[in-house]
Design goal:
Distance between the termini: 44 Å
Mean pLDDT: 88
Low-confidence stretches: 1-8
Strand order of the largest sheet: 1-2-4-3
Number of helices: 8
Number of domains: 1
Strand content: 5-15%
CATH superfamily: NADH Oxidase
Number of strands: 4
CATH topology: NADH Oxidase
Structural class: alpha+beta
Shape: globular
Length: about 200
């Protein structure tokens, strides 16, 4: 896996973990270099093996890299994301199935779909690719991709995928945001016992 020295020097975990987790981040500047179809297949294969409650595997992905279908996917993006995400060579819409075939609610559908997305994101980094998930989409437009079955699904997000490019290609307002963000301390979200009110 290709990891730049800039990335390695920006984030520092408090305890030793695999560097793939530290070096996963969400850039906005992507090269137009196409992603090979077999590499796209690898991303979804990684998502396939994510854990899910009762093995329901509720995640669904619709993707495009070019052509009219890609134009339709780009139209789902809000303008602030369309500016940069439409440049990425691959765009994915993410959905989750909200009920089983016998009508039972899948209570962990969003949680499980998040696990599948993380699997895809980590596989992408192993392959030298970057991902950027976006909640800034027109969900009413996105859900139309599910056709007659749309009432059974929830639109979650879109994901731009590609090889990272130089941030100088971005507008000044986006350039300033093109940095690897830090994280809160583990002690701020992990508690041994009851949380103080």
């Amino acid at each position: 896996m290709e990891v730049s020295s800039m990335e390695l020097n920006t984030r520092h975990p408090d305890v030793s973990i695999n560097e793939i987790f530290i070096n996963r981040w969400s850039p906005r500047s992507f090269k137009k270099t196409p992603i090979a179809s077999e590499d796209i297949s690898r991303l979804f294969e990684a998502a396939r093996w994510a854990p899910s409650g009762s093995n329901n595997q509720p995640w669904r992905f619709i993707y495009a890299s070019s052509g009219k279908k890609r134009e339709k996917l780009n139209a789902v993006l809000m303008d602030s994301n369309k500016i940069w995400a439409s440049e990425a060579p691959l765009l994915i819409l993410v959905f989750c199935l909200t009920s089983t075939s016998d009508g039972r609610e899948i209570r962990t559908a969003q949680f499980d779909t998040g696990a599948a997305w993380m699997s895809l994101a980590i596989q992408a980094r192993y392959m030298g690719l970057y991902t950027h998930a976006m909640g800034g989409i027109h969900r009413d437009k996105a859900i139309e991709f599910m056709g007659k079955q749309k009432s059974k699904y929830e639109s979650i997000c879109a994901i731009a995928v590609g090889y990272k490019d130089n941030k100088d290609r971005l507008s000044d307002s986006l350039k300033s945001r093109e940095i690897m963000s830090q994280r809160m301390l583990v002690s701020e979200f992990v508690f041994g016992g009851e949380i103080d009110s």
